[in-house]
Design goal:
This protein has a five-stranded mixed sheet with strand order 9-14-13-12-11, with no helix packed on it. The chain has a four-stranded antiparallel sheet with strand order 3-4-5-6, with no helix packed on it. Strands 10-17-16-15 form a four-stranded antiparallel sheet, with no helix packed on it. The two termini are about 30 Å apart. With about 210 residues, it is mostly beta strands. The protein is built from no helices and 17 strands. It has strands at about 15-20, 30-35, 45-50, 55-60, 70-75, 85-90, 95-100, 100, 110, 115-120, 135-140, 140-150, 150-160, 170-175, 180-185, 195-200, 205-210. It folds into two domains: about 1-20 and about 30-90; about 105-210, Beta Barrel (Thrombin, subunit H), CATH 2.40.10. It is about 0% helix and about 50% strand.
């Protein structure tokens, strides 16, 4: 199955599958798997990754309770031609600013892990929104980035130990100086994550490394 992309009949984003033609030069066949509503399921689909068992994981930049985006899973139907099942794994929140810095999450509600951050190069610009990076699937865990008020976060989602349980969210790093992580990230075999941030207000940006 091809990775999904953002486009929907209702304009809120969708996940679809593209099947190659039976012979070279033929037309590709598009199948709509799920259309988002910008409600609790989120909207404005920004990324996706195919996982084990045909499950598709991805992010929405908008929608849900705070209009800050979601992380979702789409499970294939039990029988061909059936409906795909959407499950919202996590809903992002945007909280008030404190002391001039945006606080994207409440650190007392979620597990956090100490990491080292190294700035490799500066340039770029920025904006505020929900999750906006392609998800990385590694050893069953999902990694991504989300822009929030005053900065953003790089996060990790670990699946529940039993089906139907809650996913565990770990914030690997908080950007609180206006720098917003965006675009694709790279997760290396030895652990470090590399990516870029942007800040429109100051006309600056960074290339970062987050090491376990």
């Amino acid at each position: 199955m091809s990775p999904p992309a953002a486009a929907a009949p209702n304009g809120e984003g969708s996940v679809f599958d593209l099947t190659p033609p039976a012979s070279p030069g033929g037309a590709w066949t598009g199948t709509l798997l799920y259309s988002f509503t910008a409600g609790a399921d989120g909207g404005s689909t920004s990324s996706a990754a195919a996982g084990p068992g045909g499950v598709v994981y991805g992010t929405n930049e908008l929608g849900a309770s705070a209009d800050a985006g979601t992380v979702f899973a789409l499970s294939p139907p039990a029988a061909p031609g059936g409906a795909w099942t959407e499950t919202t794994l996590y809903t992002f929140q945007i909280e008030r600013q404190r002391g001039g810095h945006g606080v994207p999450v409440d650190p007392t509600r979620h597990a956090r892990r100490a990491v080292d951050q190294t700035i490799l190069k500066s340039f770029g610009y920025g904006y505020n929104c929900g999750p906006d990076s392609p998800l990385i699937l590694h050893n069953g865990d999902l990694y991504g980035a989300a822009c929030q008020s005053g900065g953003g976060v790089v996060f990790k989602l670990e699946p529940p130990s039993a089906p139907g349980g809650a996913w565990t969210t770990t914030y690997l790093h908080h950007f609180i100086d206006g720098q917003v992580p965006g675009g694709a990230m790279v997760l290396t075999k030895k652990g470090p994550i590399y990516g870029a941030t942007i800040d429109e207000s100051s006309g600056t940006g960074t290339i970062y490394e987050i090491a376990p």
